[in-house]
Design brief:
heterodimer; A: 376 residues; 2 domains; five-stranded parallel sheet; two-stranded antiparallel sheet; 14 helices; globular; B: 475 residues; OB fold (Dihydrolipoamide Acetyltransferase, E2P); Dihydrolipoamide Transferase; Chloramphenicol Acetyltransferase; five-stranded antiparallel sheet; 11 helices
């Protein structure tokens, strides 16, 4: 790994070594010290469930049940660790791989698959979970997040001193998105307006097949320096460190001190999506190296060593994972075609004459076919 | 009761149509679990391991290793209830590729007697909603992937009645031609008007093939001219593909004529005045001169008398013999007359002029006129002969035309059209008589010649034509 580049492993905040040893950190230890074994077990459970779900979804795609799947395999610590740092009033703008974060926001993972089966554009109500819809356009939601954060300030929901009230926004995106103009604009606006937004970059080292070295000469966190945003690089496969830096960043944002840029250095173990073949652009040895840094195994080793992972708990999580897999499978296979007119439902918040005209026309259009029943 | 289920080859990428079976990792009789890897396939994108959607016992491998299989074709059969009672029949015959492709579900067509349970799930993708089509070359119209199957956009049957567009019938009255940019570019290059192409693509889209078909249909046809007249009569030019017209580049005389006419017509505001006169005396004079020994060496025509009449009129009204210098904002009055004669030649219209025609006696004028006409006919008109004209006559009479509104030769301010001379009933000395009559038309540049001046000039020309002896008075 080139020193100082976007793949550098220097200066990564780490609180749990790959062997599972808990180590200290001058600045961020304080943001992890509150974690009880129970809370760590909850993170382990979430990571395990999300991975099981991810595997099941991958299989379903290979069985022809999903048009596409985007695996989160390998990035569970970055997602679950940061997700556990969120308060209910915080708002998340995910890209499309944040299944772990979705899970921590109470989104039923199975529902996420409606998008990937082509049934719906968004499969949950963002306001119910303070979790925006998946954004497939790369990086555009960094602007949405910044705008939402600026709105929080204007609504007086930042720096009130009331922890139940103060809110912040987290925008999740990847290393590739940092090359988008939208992200650059979002960083600029967030900075100059002191927007309470945390930019959480999961640097999984590849923008589809393109190495992060093609996105940046310097660590992605350094982008913050250029616009005056405090930034931190964290070991994204360390769930405790990911949690701690996010907690710090959220407190920073909620208290009115402005945005933070977090770069979680991690690795995508699967393909970019089920439509590409990672063996064509990255070496086996590299995949092997990162398999040894597995985020779940790391926390598992830590809990085991502390005697905090009893067999009953393991069995319970295993059963939950199996049940989730089965529920995912049967639910997805049971889905029938949606009413196509449903696509007009959420175009605008309020009734809109043009949309109604289009809905009525489309209804007539569908009815104009002799074999209409076959497609409804 | 044993229940057999089949696994159809899924689209493992986005828009893949087929895959090669590389390695089976299960064999007939093996017990498989849900999501257990069963086969490795190679698509256009990658090597992919497919997991079993069923738990049970493998009863048949429906395709061999090395085979290329279309998406939707069953590849594996599993008995998902092996502990059930012996089946009365083996599984249903394997469906053909086409039949299977029509099935929306890529998974689990139940093939045994027990169909009460585990109904087939609905199609996951839009592709499954499309009707089956024979395998042809893909069209490639997908964001990622290797194209959708040709024919997958087959039109569906419509019920009676047409569907008015959104916002009422009038809103959609005119549909533009639908074509993708590369197809538009192709059409432009091939000179195909897209509105003339019959579209074959989905939704009335004009495809590349349609454009090429159109070119073929209109390629190098024989001349669409009169029956038996299949030889081009133009010396140059390119005949259009449909044989309906020939395009000739605008060059030399035609080009100069066009430029001169455009320049003149759109810079000098033209006014044309007409005068119909009895020219019987002119015709008598012409007849006498033809008998005159002094004129035996030249051809005498009514044009000679018109030329003389115009020269006399110019002498009386020299302001008409002028030009407009726009750049200097000056009117240039000429103290000489270079009399232009518009002449039709094999190369087009030329306007040579007779230098200092105002000084020439009638015989000399006749000689010059004859030489000028001869040179124009044989194409030897010199450039000098066409320079510096001051006033022009266009002789349209020989063509049988009564009159016209001539356009000024650039740089000049007046042009006289001499129409056909006909015998007509005419009031002559208080009686209706048969007389030689013609119509004169004078166009002039209204910037520097007022209507009155133009009228006086034309009237003078007419006066001499009517009574050539007037020339003795004015000469």
């Amino acid at each position: 790994m080139a020193a100082g580049g976007p793949l550098s492993t220097d200066d990564l905040v780490q609180l749990l070594t790959p062997a599972g040893e808990r180590i200290g950190h001058q600045q961020f230890d304080a943001y992890a010290s509150h974690l009880t074994p129970e809370e760590l077990r909850a993170m382990w459970r979430d990571m395990t469930l999300v991975r099981a779900f991810d595997k099941e979804a991958t299989s379903l795609q290979r069985q022809g049940e999903l048009g596409l799947w985007v695996q989160s395999w390998g990035q569970e610590a970055a997602q679950i660790g940061s997700g556990h740092a969120l308060n209910s009033q915080d708002f998340v703008f995910p890209s499309y791989r944040e299944h772990g974060v979705a899970h921590t926001r109470g989104v039923d993972l199975v529902e996420v698959l409606r998008i990937f089966r082509g049934l719906q554009h968004g499969a949950w109500t963002p306001a119910d979970h303070n979790f925006h819809l998946y954004t497939l356009v790369i990086g555009s939601h960094a602007l949405h997040a910044t705008g939402y954060a600026m709105g929080l300030t204007k609504d007086g929901l930042v720096a009130t001193g009331d922890p139940a009230k103060d809110a912040a926004v987290v925008a999740y995106f990847g290393d590739g998105a940092t090359s988008q103009g939208d992200v650059a604009e979002a960083l600029t606006f967030a900075s100059v307006y002191d927007a309470p937004v945390v930019f959480f970059v999961q640097n999984n080292q590849y923008a589809i097949s393109e190495s992060a070295t093609r996105q940046s000469r310097v660590p992605i966190a350094d982008r913050g320096k250029g616009v005056g945003i405090p930034s931190v690089r964290v070991d994204g496969n360390d769930v405790i460190a990911s949690h701690a830096v996010t907690r710090w960043a959220l407190e920073h944002a909620r208290s009115g001190q402005g945005p933070v840029l977090i770069e979680a250095f991690t690795y995508r173990m699967g393909a970019h999506t089920t439509s590409d073949d990672p063996t064509r652009y990255r070496p086996k040895a590299e995949e092997q190296l990162w398999a040894e840094r597995d985020p779940i195994a790391r926390l598992e080793a830590h809990l085991e060593a502390a005697g905090e992972l009893p067999d009953e708990f393991r069995a319970e999580v295993e059963a939950q994972a199996k049940a989730l897999g089965e529920r995912t499978r049967t639910t997805v296979r049971g889905w029938t075609k949606p009413d196509t007119l449903g696509m007009f439902d959420h175009v605008y918040a309020e009734p809109h004459a043009s949309v109604e005209a289009e809905r009525a026309w489309f209804d007539r259009y569908q009815r104009s076919f002799a074999d209409q029943e076959a497609t409804r | 009761m044993p229940t057999y289920q089949q696994f159809n080859l899924p689209d493992a990428g986005e828009g893949l149509t087929e895959a090669d079976i590389v390695t089976w990792s299960v064999a007939v009789g093996d017990t498989v679990e849900v999501n257990q890897p069963i086969v490795e396939i190679e698509t256009a994108k990658s090597l992919v391991e497919l997991p079993s959607p069923f738990s049970g016992v493998v009863t048949r491998l429906l395709v061999d290793e090395g085979e290329t299989v279309e998406v939707g074709v069953p590849i594996l059969e599993v008995d998902v209830d092996p502990d059930g009672e012996a089946p009365a029949e083996p599984s249903a015959p394997v469906q053909t590729a086409d039949a299977v492709a029509e099935q929306p579900s890529p998974v689990a067509q139940e093939s045994a007697q027990d169909s009460a349970h585990a109904s087939a799930p609905a199609a996951p993708s839009a592709a499954a909603a499309a009707p089956a089509a024979p395998a042809e070359e893909g069209s490639g119209a997908v964001l990622v992937g290797y194209g959708v199957k040709a024919g997958s956009a087959t039109r569906r049957e419509r019920v009676e009645g047409s569907l008015e567009p959104i916002g009422g019938a009038e809103a959609g009255a005119e549909y533009p031609v639908l074509a993708k940019p590369p197809v538009r570019k192709l059409a432009k290059e091939l000179g195909v008007d897209l509105t003339t192409v019959t579209p074959s693509g989905p939704g009335g889209l004009v495809t590349r093939e349609d454009v090429e078909q159109q070119v073929k249909a209109t390629a190098a046809q024989t001349l669409a001219t009169y029956a038996g007249d299949d030889q081009p009569w133009l010396a140059s030019g390119t005949t259009t593909r449909d044989g309906r017209s020939t395009r000739v580049p605008v060059k030399s005389v035609r080009k100069r004529t066009a430029e001169a006419m455009v320049q003149s017509a759109f810079t000098a505001p033209h006014v044309t005045e007409f005068l119909t006169v009895d020219v019987t005396e002119t015709m008598n004079l012409v007849a006498r001169l033809k008998q005159d020994r002094d004129f035996a060496d030249v051809r005498v025509t009514p044009l000679l008398i018109v030329a003389k009449a115009l020269l006399l009129a110019v002498r009386r009204h020299p302001e008409v013999n002028a030009s407009w210098d726009d750049e200097a904002q000056e009117i240039v009055y000429k103290h000489y007359v270079n009399l232009g004669i518009a002449a039709s030649t094999p190369r087009g219209l030329v306007v040579p002029n007779i230098k200092d025609a105002h000084r020439l006696p009638l015989h000399a004028l006749a000689v010059e006129l004859q030489d000028l006409t001869a040179q124009a006919r044989n194409g030897s008109t010199s450039p000098r002969a066409m320079n510096d004209g001051t006033v022009t006559i266009t002789n349209i009479g020989p063509l049988g035309i009564d009159t016209g509104t001539p356009i000024l030769n650039p740089g000049e301010s007046a042009i006289l059209a001499f129409g056909a001379v006909r015998q007509q009933p005419w009031v002559h000395e208080g009686e209706i008589a048969v007389r030689w009559v013609t119509t004169l038309a004078l166009s002039f540049d209204h910037r520097l010649i007022d209507g009155e001046l133009g009228a006086r000039v034309l009237a003078d020309v007419g006066r001499v034509m009517q009574d050539p002896s007037q020339g003795l008075v004015w000469a």
